[in-house]
Amino acid sequence: MHRMQVTHHPISGRRPAGAEPGAGALPGSHGTAQAGTGAAQADAARTDAAGTGTADADVAGAVGEVLRRLLRPRVEEAASADPVFGRDVAEPVARFALHGGKRMRSQLLWWGMRACGGDAQAADAALHVAAGVELLQTCALLHDDVMDGAQVRRGRPAFHVAWHDARPGVRRAVPGPTFGDSAAILAGDLALAWADDTVATAPLRPDRAAAVRGLWQVLRTEMAAGQYVDLHSQATGCRSERTAVRTALLKSALYSVQRPLELGAALAGAGRAAADALSVAGRCAGLAFQLRDDLTDAFGDPARTGVPTDSDIRAGKPTYLVAVARRLAQRSGDRAALRVLDRRAGGAGLSPQAQAEVRQVLESIGARAAVEAQIAALTARALDHLGAPLAGLGPVARSRIGDLFTAATRAAGNAASRGPVADQAELDPVIAEVLSAAGHVTEKEDMR
Length: 448
What we know:
Blueprint: E1 2-3, E2 32-33, H1 38-47, H2 53-57, H3 59-81, H4 83-99, H5 104-115, H6 120-148, E3 152-153, E4 156-157, H7 159-166, H8 179-200, H9 206-236, H10 241-268, H11 272-299, H12 302-305, H13 311-315, H14 320-332, H15 335-344, H16 352-364, H17 367-385, H18 395-409, H19 429-437
Antiparallel strand pairs: 1-2, 3-4
Helix pairs in contact: 1-3, 1-6, 3-4, 3-6, 4-8, 5-6, 5-10, 5-18, 6-8, 6-9, 6-10, 7-8, 9-10, 10-11, 10-19, 11-17, 11-18, 14-15, 14-17, 15-16, 17-18
């Protein structure tokens, strides 16, 4: 796979002033492609005999082109309401959405639809709903960066930072939140409104519209709930391992993996067995994805990830990784490790040396290895549910979903695995309990 060449097409005839993220003409779709351009792929998804063939080669590009087509009139509408709002808020939001990151959620939605045999009409609807998911993710990232006080996003200044620094004439001393924080909140609200509009106007089949819109409503609520539970746990100093897993499930597993797959299945009109198998697979892979994210935050290389590491450590977030470290330290009677972890719970003001001490404890106490084992076990179970339960349905699509699972849950820099993930560890009883409460069947022999 080769990275698709980036083309530049402005969404309006005006280049915005300032140095906000992505200033200038809006970029072309990002992603990987084997052939063709994003525009051709998006058109082909609606016109080729299979209704899906060309978009299969570059899902991210096809979704990006749908986004570009949908966002152009929305940015113009915002500029008509107020030119400064259009320039300062709407255009940067559109550019951010079009940069798009990896578009993992869109790809999972698409391949969930393809695995369940979606036709040309389902494919067209899938591209539109996927565009809505990308706009919802834009909202989530803009708001998350404000709540976390993040300075960098995708290797560039976070929106609230760039807005505050780039606006000529903005007074530095203003009451309440900074100008950048307030602008980023409004930008996230705008992205959420665009996301809802995109899904509301998607060309859904009447017999599938209720299921798709019901899942969309659940997805939005779970996204907000996950963010709040994360915020609440941090504010209260919660040390519950179960709460840490539940937070990871709400904040990432459901929103990022399970629900996109379920949306794809609903768009295709999937039967109950196939939809349930995708749901369980997505839940397991999604939790593994969040656990990998926790490890990457603690031990990752910023040059690879595009964001600073140690943000969870500095903020004192009660992640599953830290909860496991505390359990292992208590079990072994390692008081020195507990003191380091207790000091870290204070969050703000940790020196680089103190952050390094926390990382050393996470490593030496065995927490990092324990979380790696859970990632492997969860990924193995996710791949198992793509096997027998979905036999006879879209083998290529199932393989693509498996590849996305593996890519999302492996450590950065590791070569992609071409075979099944080794199931070398039992699930942590706490993880098994939370998954079971969410409707997961942990025993392989119970999978139908």
